Amino acid sequence: MNDAVSFRPMTEADLDAVLNIEYAAFSHPWTRGLFLEGLQHYECWLMFAGTQQVGHGIIQLVLDEAHLLNIAVKPESQGRGLGLQLLTYLMGRANARQASECFLEVRASNQPAYRLYERYGFNEIGRRRNYYPAADGQGREDALVMACTLLE
After folding, report:
1. Which whole-number Å values give the CA distances from 132 to 39, 42, 66, 138, 139, in the listed order?
2. Domains and CATH numbers, the chain
3. DSSP label at 47?
4. How far, in Å, CA of 44 to CA of 81, rounded?
5. The whole model's pTM is what?
6. Active-site residue numbers?
7. Which whole-number Å values give the CA distances from 58 to 72, 90, 101, in the listed order?
8. 35 to each of 13, 86, 129, 146, how far by Cα in Å?
9. What radius of gyration do the chain's Cα atoms show?
10. How confident is the model at residue 25 (pLDDT cuts 50, 70, 90)?
11. How far apart are CA 110 and CA 102, in angstroms?
12. Which of 3, 10, 92, 138 is the most buried (most CB within 10 A)?
């Protein structure tokens, strides 16, 4: 697919399509209520390949820190570099808003996401024990905490 990638802010009208991607991509997806709250408090972005909505991302900005809260690419669109393009766009937004560092948590079992963040320049700085409900619904899973310095 060589469709041009573009981005635009998420609106409440987008939530049905956003939730379709979210539920396809994650074992414990964000709810409509979380997205509605996010629209009020965070930067929420959609990514398109051509005219097709293929992903979304949410960043929280507090003073000079950014926190990547959610990033998702449709499962059938994964493996084509779209996640890196989305992450790069979101980090550019954070940088434009004067953030000098970004933090995130990722499931210890989510190696594709971990590799994506590493490729961008995130480093593992810690671990939150039993942070996430386990994907299989049995027990809990650790979160790896990662950070990246945002440079001009």
Report:
1. 23, 22, 21, 11, 9
2. 5-149 (3.40.630.30)
3. E
4. 20
5. 0.92
6. 105, 117
7. 9, 8, 15
8. 11, 18, 25, 23
9. 15
10. very high
11. 19
12. 10
Describe the strand order of the beta sheet including 43-49 as a list of residue ranges: 5-9, 43-49, 52-62, 65-73, 101-107, 140-149, 123-133
| Inter-helix orientation angle 82-96/111-120, to 10° | 50
Please state the φ and ψ torsions of residue 26, each to the nearest 5 degrees: -130, 145
Lookup result for tokens 């049905």: 16
Task: Give residue for tokens 């074992």.
Answer: 27
> Residue 25 is encoded by which pair of tokens?
């991509």
> So what's the pLDDT on residue 101?
97
Q: Could you report the per-residue pLDDT of 29-66, keeping only the tens digit for each?
A: 999 999 999 999 999 999 999 999 999 999 999 999 99
Residues 6+ apart with CB under 8 A from 110: none
Tokens of 127: 């671990």
